Amino acid sequence: MAKLSLNSALKGISGRIDNWVYRKYGDRTVLGRRPEFSGPPSAGQQAVRDRFRAAAAYAKTVLADPVQRLDYEALARARSVPLFALIMGDYLNPPEVTAIDLADYHGQAGDVIRMEAQDDVAVQAVSLEIRDATDAILEQGPAVLSGGRWSYAATAVVPAGATVTIQATATDRPGHTGARIVAWTNA
User: Does the model's pTM come out above 0.70?
Assistant: First the structure.
């Protein structure tokens, strides 16, 4: 690969000129051929383009809101990443519930279920749902953040021998969700 030092007039160049694309990577400028597309995009390609279009629209909305912008700016500075890229990444990467801890849950009202959730920027909320074998909701509600973990105090009693599904759902700033479901039997 050839290396070239640009003169001061071209040092900040980026974008497309003729059939060439100039990209900035840190303090380097990279030159490449303009991509050629043959035919209309496939359904998968169009879906990706639509997601990126929605992410860009979300980023523009956040940048126009001074309160949200401040939060993202602080995080972008701390991570040394471009603000727009950080916001788009937050939109494109949904949160994830990484663990549901049932060690203190015994099917009684007041028992605590603990959850861990993560996101590339911030988890805004975690909610919990407990369903019986017929998929009817026994109880549901928001979890509380305490010491880096989310906790939910049960309000319903699960009869001995009954199997329930417990679903924890995390929500991030753009409103996307990620969930984890576990089955539990009251032994």
Answer: yes
